[in-house]
Structure formats: structure tokens, C-alpha cells
Specification:
Radius of gyration: 16 Å
Order of helices and strands: HHHHHH
Structural class: mainly alpha
Oligomer: single chain
Largest sheet: none
Number of strands: 0
Length: 133
């Protein structure tokens, strides 16, 4: 479950985000990746290096207001940061040892969805079932 649940959470995230119409979906996701970029600021364990990382993801989030690609890049950056924190032993949730690993598994799922343009998964399912009829 340590590996499967984060992947399912990533898919669930994309499904829930599909309820938001464009262009609001893209802008909302830009805000979400900005928040993710600041998640380790309250004691992530890399000291002052947490600030340049947060700045880099904030830049991606700002560019993401108009570009799904930058939102996806921001999530991929966060994936790498999660892995560094997992291996160093400073998880995103201090009392959950594998929380950064879970985040590192979830984030690329979200990133791939974003790099595909953040399509409505609900609309994709509806169109495929309509074609099958």
C-alpha cells in the first residue's frame, strides 16, 4: 500500500481537479504547486536551501498561471525534492516516515497529467464511453 496509495491519490487529484473548468483549473493548479513548493519551509532539514527551492517552484507556479508545462515542471521539481528529503530522513510529515516517499510517487502522476495539459478526466471518460456505444 505504501506504493499504490500515492499513485491512486495522484489519479484522484486529477479527477477532482477535472471538476474545475478551464482556465480556472490551470490557475488553481498553479496555486497548488506553489503551496507544494513551500511545504518543507517549516523545517524540511536542508536549512537555507529550502528557500531557493521554494523560489524556483514559485517561479514555475507564476509561469504556470498561463502554462500547464510549467505546472508540470514544478511538480517534477517537487518530486526530486521529496526524494532528497526521503533519503535524508526528513519527511514532509514528521511523524510519518515514508510521507516524502509517498509524495514522490504521487507528484509525478500529477505532473504527467499537467504536462498533458490538465485535461478533464471526466470528459475523457465520457467521450470514450459515448464512442463505445
Amino acid at each position: 500500500m505504501t506504493y499504490v496509495a500515492p499513485l491512486l491519490i495522484g489519479v484522484l487529484y486529477a479527477l477532482v481537479m477535472s471538476l474545475i473548468r478551464e482556465p480556472h483549473r490551470r490557475r488553481f493548479n498553479a496555486i497548488m504547486v506553489a503551496g507544494a513548493g513551500a511545504a518543507y519551509l517549516s523545517g524540511g532539514g536542508f536549512g537555507g536551501w529550502e528557500f531557493p527551492f521554494a523560489a524556483a517552484v514559485t517561479y514555475c507556479a507564476y509561469r504556470g498561471l498561463e502554462s500547464w508545462t510549467f505546472i508540470g515542471i514544478g511538480w517534477l521539481l517537487h518530486t526530486g525534492w521529496d526524494l532528497l528529503h526521503h533519503f535524508k530522513g526528513n519527511p514532509i510529515i514528521p511523524f510519518a516516515h515514508d510521507s516524502s516517499l509517498g509524495c514522490a510517487l504521487c507528484d509525478p502522476v500529477i505532473a504527467l497529467w499537467c504536462l498533458r495539459g490538465g485535461p478533464s478526466l471526466i470528459s475523457l471518460v465520457r467521450s470514450r464511453t459515448a464512442r463505445a456505444r
